[in-house]
Amino acid sequence: MFRQFRNIETAFRHIKLFSFVLIAACMAICCYTVFESYNMVSASQQRIYLLANGKALQALSADRRDNIPVEARDHIKMFHHYFFSLDPDDKVIEGNISMALYLADGTAKKQYDDLKESGYYTGIISGNVSQQVSADSITVDMQAYPYYFRYYGVQKMVRPTTTVSRSLITEGYLRNVARSDNNPHGFLVERWRIIENRDLDIQQR
Q1: Could you tell me which of 156, 143, 152, 157 has the C-alpha nearest to residue 171?
Q2: Average of pLDDT values for 125-150?
Q3: DSSP 176-205
Q4: Is the pLDDT of residue 59 over 60?
Q5: Tens-digit pLDDT profile for residues 3-44
Q6: Is the dihedral of CA 137, 116, 107, 75 positive or negative?
Q7: Which residues contact 109 (CB under 8 A, 6 or more apart)?
Q8: Is the same domain home to 38 and 81?
Q9: Helices (H), the chain
Q10: Domain holding 148: CATH number?
Q11: I need a labelling partner for 115 at 20 to 30 A (CA). Which of 20, 66, 140, 157 fits?
Q12: Could you tell me if residue 59 is inside a domain?
């Protein structure tokens, strides 16, 4: 009889141990499943599908910190593009300058006012001059805030009889602002100034 009790007690301990092991295994599987599900949802949320011309294109989202240098250089590039890309049409000039001034502070507005007062834009219209700028290189110091930058580019002015190429070197700083439709990168050019703008080449047309 005592042997039977001992057998029952041993069997109960084995069942209890087996139950604990089973519960622990179930909890481990549940935790692993939740963790993997969270990773899958996070990964799927980083994928964006864009519809362009009837085709679905996949894009990946990323943390802004990973893209700050790229966005900063593109902001600087677009500011110079709008400020220096001009045609002999006052509507084009006003539209481009307006876009450029959304991307910069009062130093760009002052530069525009000085050029306007000197008759620069009137000369472009009356002389049928088309002006474009292309970036050679853009350096941005991301070690200190606001971010210092220097822009190196070539300005091309097409006149009825000549094509003039000019070097363009500017510098300034970038600070963070809220993103908007007019300022998609969320930067503002500050303390902007032109360091060099001289003729490189003149070709007859």
Answers
A1: 152
A2: 94
A3: E----SS-TT-EEEEEEEEEEEEEEEEEE-
A4: no
A5: 554 566 676 677 777 777 878 888 888 888 887 877 666 555
A6: negative
A7: 101
A8: no
A9: 2-45, 64-84, 90-102, 106-117, 120-126
A10: 3.10.450.230
A11: 140
A12: no
Q: Are 50 and 56 spatial neighbours (Cβ–Cβ below 8 Å)?
A: yes
Sign of the Cα pseudo-torsion (77, 55, 64, 179, in order)? positive
pTM: 0.70
Domain with 185 in it: 64-204
Q: Are residues 92 and 147 in the same domain?
A: yes
Angle of helix 106-117 relative to helix 64-84, nearest 10 degrees, comes to 10
pLDDT tens, residue by residue, 72-101: 999 999 999 999 999 999 999 999 999 999
Cα–Cα–Cα angle for 133, 138, 142, nearest 5°?
Answer: 150
Any idea what the Cα angle at residue 59 is, between residues 55 and 65, rounded to 5°? Answer: 160
Residues in Cβ contact with 71 at an 8 Å cutoff, skipping those fewer than 6 apart: 64, 185, 186, 187
Mean of all residue pLDDT scores within the chain: 85
